[in-house]
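Suppose a colleague, Dr. K., hands you the sequence of a protein chain of 148 amino acids and asks what its three-dimensional shape might be. Before reaching for any lab equipment, you can write down a predicted structure in token form. Begin with the sequence itself:
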Amino acid sequence: MSLFKKNFLFLLIVFVGIQFMPTTRNQRNEVLEIDFFKTFGAPNNIQNLFKNSCYDCHSNNTNYPWYNKIQPVSWLLEHHIKEGKKELNFSEFGGYSKRRQKSKLKSIKNQIEKNEMPLSSYIFIHKDAKLSENDKKLIYNWLDELKK
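The predicted structure, expressed as tokens, is then:
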């Protein structure tokens, strides 16, 4: 057997083997009382925008795509979600201090304005997550109302 075939067979066995390694899943069916929307009473159109564009990475309940079942993709997604929640977790937003909430609201607006969020890699696969200019204006206006 050639070296190429041996290497290919080895890599195939490793690939199949890692498929059996479990991953944690970011899915809770409950909505906490400190959830972002419960804290601020967002209208349905704003809730839909945030859920489509933000909640998969920044909440305790991710809607996983089919390819999450394939390793090492699942590990990458879980790492990305963990980092996103560490930065901002909408499911626990009401538990943040008032100062931190204010800072996060400002950061949300700034990142949307600079097209840093949602991530382009996320939009590439989730086309409905892309925020139109009208969507952004709705979010900006709603966030500005929260400051009053």
